[in-house]
Amino acid sequence: MTAISLTNLSVYYGETPTTHDVTFDIGKGESFALVGESGSGKSTILKAIAGLAPKWQGKISLLGTPRNHAIDPRVARQCQMVFQDPYGSLHPRKTIDATLSEPLAIHGIGDQNERVCAQMAAVGLDPRFRFRFPHQLSGGQRQRVAIARALMLEPQILLLDEPTSALDVSVQAEVLNLLKRLRHQHNLTYLLVTHNLAVVSFMCERLAVMKRGRIVEIATVEQLKQNTLEHDYSGELLRASASHLISAENPS
Amino acid sequence: MAPLLEIENLTVTFPTPSGPVNVVDGVSFTLNRERLGIVGESGSGKSMTGRSILKLIRAPGTVKADRFVFDGLDLNKYSERQMRTLRGARISMVMQDPKFSLNPVMNVGTQIAEALKTHQKLNRKSLRERVFSMLESVRIDDPERVARLFPHEISGGMGQRVMIAMMLIPEPDLLIADEPTSALDVSVQSQVLDIIDNLVTAKGMGLILISHDLNLVSSYCDRILVMNSGRMLEECAAGQLQNAEHPYTRGLLAAMPRLDENRDLLPVLDRASWSAP
Asked: Which member of A231, B118, B155, B217 lies 3.0 to 4.6 Å from B37 by CB, making a disulfide possible if both were Cys?
């Protein structure tokens, strides 16, 4: 069974189409990356899947069930999103406890106390942070809160929109390790949007390269590592991100 | 030739309820017309070092330095009014976030022109031409259209290129770039850095590139300073970064995922090993 299946998905902002006929399938438990430059429509696809961009044509299926255009609590149970900016995605006037219990309250789930504590422990947050506000936390800790919030409803799919691009490299390593561990523990499916190809190489099995709202290539991560991507544009992207990596490793 | 910038024992202090804290603690370096990179995590004081060169630290923060000379001018003696003649014209700074650094109620072309008009007298026609050619040199394809747009109408990447255009148009001697590309994606990142690089080399400017990305800094700079908790830990030539000695630098290098990644987990910094007082 596929976790996410998109068929000819075109998302519109107003009258403007931002993606054109996007089609791909992600297997259950797979980690799939969308890469491309800004404006290529990769975040838009995540938004359409999560229900944040309601104007789209085509077909979105989550775990075998087609998704309609309305906000659907069943989709929220299956599929949650982690946003790029941990400074913007947490409510500044709500404590961590309130942020984490809200999804439980909305979906009428009990045992809030135990679930909040357990989830905080699972993402490596000390219990003393529970009644603090986001401004009292560092960027890495906030991103952990955002990940914990996404996992509160025990979804099977996580949509990750540049989860580490606002973080330092050392903190990025911690968050990436955390995401990798959680995926193995809960058999999660990841759809990761990033422009950092090294993160793709660490986290994912397959990737799709996007340009101007279209998928130009779907490849495996082995092709990325061996630099055998087929499309010209993918090669360009790889060279752009490899140029400073390679020059740092082989000082000429 | 005398160095462009000489700083000795720079200290930036902020008062806190538990006594004064030195966010920059005894940093010394000299800069010729070359490219210097400052790297470190957030909170390491790298941005504060950059800002203190322009004396942009607001009260209650204080900046002290034993020696603080820019191109023969003793900045320790400079008043706020005198600093204003330097900022933009001789030393300029590209800030981290274009969203907060651009004026939201002024279109892009006017903002760039303002940066130039403040320091030079030009007629309207040549002003327009300078703005358009500057926008072109930061790879904005359609400068006439973009110049009429407001900051909320352009993407983050384009906003950052506009900022760079604005900072480079008065042709300063020293450019301080504080995380200039952290909002951009890789393909544009190298373009923008190439633009900065070309201008710096062509005009013989000095560049201080502040970033948390070690690889990026090492490929665009000649020398690198590594900072942690306000102190300078290590200074090395960019090509020698792989042979860095300090455990902090080595930890940062190891924590970065590589393109041909086959490690199962990334090594995480063990902060206890060097932060002991």
From this structure: B217
Residue that is written with structure tokens 């025990």 in the block? A154
Provide the sign of the torsion angle of the four alpha carbons B108, B109, B110, B114, taken in this order. positive
| pLDDT digits 0-9 by tens, B196-224 | 888 788 888 889 999 888 878 888 888 99
**Contact across the interface for A171 and B259, Cβ inside 8 Å:** no
B interface with A, Cβ–Cβ below 8 Å = 41-42, 155-157, 182, 184-190, 212-216, 218-220, 238-242, 251-252, 255-261, 263-269
Cβ of B258 within 8 Å of Cβ of A237? The answer is no
Question: What homologous superfamily does CATH list for A2-249?
Answer: P-loop containing nucleotide triphosphate hydrolases (3.40.50.300)
Tens of pLDDT, residues A22-50: 999 999 999 999 988 777 888 899 999 99
Per-residue tokens: B130: 């300078």
Comparing A70 with A150, the larger pLDDT belongs to A150
Q: Output the six-digit token pair for B196.
A: 């900065």
- Kindly provide the b/e burial profile for residues A219-239, where b requires at least 16 CB atoms within 10 angstroms of the residue's own CB: bebebbbeeebeeebbbebbe
Domain definitions of chain A by residue range: 2-249
Confidence band of B277 (pLDDT split at 50, 70, 90) = very low
What is the chain B residue with the closest CA to A204?
A: B261
A76 Cβ under 8 Å from any chain B Cβ: no
User: Could you give the CA distance from residue A229 to residue A221 in angstroms, rounded to a whole number?
Assistant: 9
